Amino acid sequence: MAVRTKIIGTGMYVPDRVVTNDDLAKLMDTSDEWIQQRSGISTRRFVDGETPADLAFEASKRALASAELDADDMELILLATLSPEHDFPGTSFFLQRRLGLEDTPCVDLRAQCSGFLYALSTADAFIRSGQYRRVLVVGCEVHSTGLEFTDRGRAVSVLFGDGAGALVLEANEDEKDSSGILQTRLHAQGEHAEKLWTEAPGSALSPRLTQAIIDEGRIFPRMEGRFVFKHAVTRMPEVLLATLNAASLKLDDVDLFLFHQANLRINEYVAQQLGIPAEKCLNNIQKYGNCSAASLPMLLAEANETGLLEAGKIVTLTAFGSGFSWASAVVRW
Ligand code: COA
Questions:
Q1: Whose CA is nearest to atom 41 of ligand 1?
Q2: Which residue minimizes the CA distance to atom 20 of ligand 1?
Q3: Architecture of domain 4-172
Q4: pLDDT tens profile 72-117
Q5: Which of 132, 129, 82, 141 is nearest to 106 (CA)?
Q6: Which residues line ligand 1 (CB under 6 A)?
Q7: What is the pLDDT of residue 1?
Q8: What local confidence, expressed as pLDDT, does residue 2 receive?
Q9: Is residue 128 pLDDT above 80, yes or no?
């Protein structure tokens, strides 16, 4: 039997500091009503001195505990983020140090809100090729230190939160066990790179950072919200259906649909378009906001902890984000 990649551990971690919509309304012209109505978000978590690697470490510890493995059982660390600890080296190296590992290879992977699925798909390919048997896959973001909490930044800054999620993957060679990642599909369209981006600091600029760049707000994320919304509600159903089709499955076969947590309205619209009943979808954006590459592994960890993922269940993970990038994975639990 061909090797299949099995998810054997899940974990998530968010910082303790809860930030409400009313807290944000003290900093900018916004309201609890506007934020909830447009995005579904009530609260998000912000760090209070923790770094991305701190969040990734806590999520990884939990994933390892749930897999009943130690950090040194991992043969590769793949970490997806758009908010790296530093310019370089990658956040995965700081995580590796926190995990007490000496020479485990580390890779940071950048595909924004689809980053986790890009990392999952890459880890799956490594495992199926036989190069590694066990891989730690992490999604981790600290957005709060890079948002503009003023009227100018309000359209973006109310949407994002900090958090981390992690999975432990293992090669499954048991012929009687049909669980694991069944299919993944990845897509990108660089044509729209500037529709949702943070321009600076960046090596395309010389110097990379000036006072003028800061004053103009080019260090903060900028988004054409409606344009992004329209593409998200088209691309997510498209890639979900294509991935299910590749796995010879239908929408009705799926027990749990997990969509990236960018906006509850996007997910409700997609579910409605596809005729997916609300009880087959899980969302946590209400509590955590958009945690980009961390959103899907956090959601999967919550699903696992609340007992939604019994053996044999079919679960899909689907994302859309900056790049543009979009992706989907189908897993038999
Ligand atoms: N509070 C109050 N008002 C706000 C606001 C805020 N935080 N942010 C923007 N507004 C105002 C705008 O200035 C605008 O005012 P105007 O009509 O006087 O010009 C009005 O609200 C509507 O803004 P608009 O951007 O058109 O709102 P929208 O209905 O498109 O909703 C988003 C905004 C961001 C919620 C929505 O476009 C969206 O979810 N887009 C996709 C987001 C996404 O998926 N991002 C990440 C992908 S990973």
A1: 229
A2: 155
A3: 3-Layer(aba) Sandwich (3.40)
A4: 999 999 999 999 999 999 999 999 999 999 999 999 999 999 999 9
A5: 132
A6: 30, 34, 38-39, 113, 154-155, 158, 223, 225-226, 228-229, 232, 262-263, 266, 290, 321
A7: 61
A8: 86
A9: yes
Q: Which residues pair with 136 in a beta bridge?
A: 77, 168
Asked if residue 298 has pLDDT above 80, the reply is yes
Question: Do 4-172 and 180-332 show the same overall fold?
Answer: yes
Tell me the domain boundaries of the chain: 4-172, 180-332
Tokens 């956040």 locate to: 91
Of ligand 1's listed atoms, the one at least distance from the Cα of 30 is 1
pLDDT of residue 53: 98
pLDDT in tens, 53-70: 999 999 999 999 999 999
Please give the class, per CATH, of domain 180-332: alpha beta
Residue ranges in the chain assigned as alpha helix (H): 21-25, 32-39, 52-67, 91-98, 115-129, 154-157, 211-215, 225-246, 264-274, 285-288, 295-305
Pocket mutation for ligand 1, best pick of 224, 226, 261 (most atoms within 8 Å of C-beta): 226
pLDDT at 278: 94
Q: What is the mean pLDDT of residues 126-141?
A: 98
Measured by CA distance, the residue closest to atom 21 of ligand 1 is: 155
Q: How far is Cα 331 from Cα 318, in angstroms, rounded to an integer?
A: 11
In tens, the pLDDT along 174-196 reads: 989 999 999 999 999 999 999 99
225 Cα: distance to centroid of ligand 1 (angstroms)? 6
pLDDT of residue 238 exceeding 70: yes
Q: Which amino acid is at 233?
A: V
Centroid of ligand 1 to alpha carbon of 90 (angstroms)? 32
Q: So which residues are the catalytic ones?
A: 113, 260, 290
Q: Before 201, cis peptide (omega within 30)?
A: yes
